[in-house]
Every structure is written in C-alpha cells, then in structure tokens.
Specification:
about 15% strand; alpha/beta; 5-stranded mixed sheet; two-stranded antiparallel ribbon
C-alpha cells in the first residue's frame, strides 16, 4: 500500500466519508502548500492532548470546567441532557438555549450491552441532588434508544420533588440526528418541548 492509498483509507474511516470523498480529500490536500499540511498535521497530532471532556458536564473543552459550566450568566436551574459532546455544539450554534448541559456519553442499547451504568446518568442525578435544578430537558435523538433512555432518566428523576422533566418537541424527525438538524427546526423543538 502506498502513501496515497493509506491516506484514502484513513479518511474513509471518518463518519460520513466514503472512498470517493476520501480520495477527493487526499487529492485536495496534495494541492495545498507545505505550510498548510504541516499546520494540519500538527493540529491533528495535539487534538486529543488539548481537548478533553469537561469534568462537570462532559462536553469537549480545552479548560476544565468548560466555558459553559463556568459562565455565571448561564441559567443554573436548567440542564439539557444530550447523547454526545457534539450535540452541545449543535444546540449552542442556534443560540437560544442559555442553561447548562449534561452529556450521557451514549444511549441505553441493551442489544449492544449498553445499560444505564455505562452512561453518566448517576452523575446527572448527583448534579440534580447537589444543585438547585428546576428543569431537566432531555434532548436525546428521537429513536427507540433515545426514547428508552429518556424514559429511564425521567423515571430516575421522578424521585426528586418539584423537578420538571421535558423532552424536545417532535419537530425533529423520528430517526433523525441532532447533528444534522437545521437551526429553525431545533429552535421550534426547544420551544415546543413537552413535560414527560
């Protein structure tokens, strides 16, 4: 295998990138000047060293706690529960939500051996117990696994009194993924969320 084929294989392992797209990327990179490629490779090499998960919410960050958790202007009474760190970026991009986040690190998937103990649900319950949380917004994807996880979290939170649990409205298509939802649909979903 030569260097070109090796890079094509590496890029084709990225989500949403097939063999054709990977080949286009490698061809494009070969046309760039050496300084760009050097910067690209150096940035890639230090990515996991610089970016970690926030010890409070689980979102990607270079500082711990992350800028969202440490921002005194955020609404500290709301927590939006999402599946993955990239979901925080998606919701932040639309700009209307001003509360806190909690990243589960996945969804309950019994067929794949993923149960509640593999997710950060206990950490979520601890945050609720230790803080003045008034609403938990569940923003898992509208899939069977997302719904199962939402129901489990709702049941776990029900032991706390006076905490509103809501779920994003169904403006998001069933089987959809938050990462690919347009800002308008996401905004309507937040406004139309319903209590569980």
């Amino acid at each position: 295998m030569n260097a070109f084929d090796d890079m094509v294989n590496i890029f084709s392992k990225l989500p949403g990138i097939g063999k054709k797209s990977s080949t286009r990327i490698v061809n494009w990179l070969l046309k760039q000047d050496e300084s760009y490629l050097l910067h690209f490779s150096q940035s890639l090499a230090v990515l996991q060293k610089k970016i970690k998960k926030c010890s409070v919410c689980g979102a990607w960050t270079e500082t711990d706690p992350c800028p969202i958790c440490s921002n005194p202007l955020r609404n500290k009474n709301e927590i939006c529960v999402v599946e993955q760190p990239q979901d925080v970026l998606t919701i932040e991009a639309y700009g209307d939500y001003k509360g806190l986040y909690h990243v589960l690190g996945g969804l309950i998937k019994p067929l794949e051996g993923i149960g509640p103990s593999q997710l950060s649900i206990n950490q979520l319950l601890q945050r609720i117990k230790e803080n003045d949380i008034q609403e938990v917004i569940i923003a898992t994807n509208p899939t069977v696994e997302g719904d199962t996880t939402a129901l489990y979290i709702n049941e776990a939170i029900s032991k706390f009194s006076n905490i509103k649990v809501s779920r994003l409205a169904t403006g998001i298509p069933v089987g959809g993924d938050l990462e690919y939802i347009d800002k308008r649909t996401l905004s309507l979903s937040f406004r139309g969320r319903t209590q569980l």
